[in-house]
Amino acid sequence: MCKTTYDEVKSNYHDQATKVNQVVTDYQKEYQAYLAKVAASGKDVVSSSQVVQRLTIQSEPQANLAISNIKGTLTKNERKESYSFNRKDMMGGGYTLNFSDNASFTATYTNLKNVTYQDKKINKITVDFTLTKNSNVDFALDLLDNPYYGWSFANGYMTATYKFYYEDGNQVNFEKGTAYLAPASLNNYLNITDHFGIETAEVVSGGQALGLYGSSVTAHGNKLYADKANSWKTADGGFQATPNAEEITDYNMPDNWDTADSPYRYYGAGLVALEGNSVTLKIYVQNSSAPANLSRPDYYTNNYNAMWYNVGTVIPETPGIPNKPTVSYNYSTVIACLRLHR
After folding, report:
1. Does residue 119 form part of some domain?
2. Could you tell me which residue ranges the Glucan-binding protein C/Surface antigen I/II V-domain domain spans (predicted)?
3. Structural domain boundaries enclosing 291
């Protein structure tokens, strides 16, 4: 015996379709309102939801590092098997290199397993370094085997030119709007009684600097740095990216943002939109605008030039993105009766 009429099936379908369409419409309105907030925060600011990323660089603990074409006076070349620049993440081995004068060299990373562009494997990255001293002591550099974790340096500034190569040896050419690097851990130390330094990544060629919505780091032309303090000095002399009300200007700073797995990593990160077959970045600590009343002005302005630089392709998720809705519907197979009127 037929229990479901054609009109009842049609009505049920109509009701479900109306509910689904309303959910989608509400989400679209919420997302457009969010994008309006992003646009209002600056012309060179984007949300992670707006970025189409086809370049992948993940941790490469098995990578091999070779250093070649050294120019300059190398005063120290020491191998170490364990580094941790943020005192939390174990970053593997690498080399401590000191130079007594300006220098340059090439770092070549091979045996890569987790680097791709548009789903095509990349097995080699080269970085051409130019190191410039601005201190009376040696330029100091800790360079890791794992390109994911980058390097730490002191007593000067540097430029780094990246090139990527496919397994067949051809150099990668990045199409506009498909590949981004995410420089992270860009600290700003503005405790005027103790410390001053603004870590900066500047795009020299091959890309455009973009700010991430909600980050303390913003794009100033092609420079990425934080205008406001986002870090503080601990009692044991180390640095932690956690708030200190005496020296920050943003009292809503997320806690512990400066680790590899932090959901708040966006707070110290920016973006470089790549285009072409290489990208050159200038990496340095700004301190020329330090206040005049620092307790040790020579140390905190002229001699403090130390920073950890790292760059990846996992774009930290920016805050406030509306959750995509989940819609449900009831699907069933029924035999519908047509009521015929004679």
Report:
1. yes
2. 93-309
3. 48-312
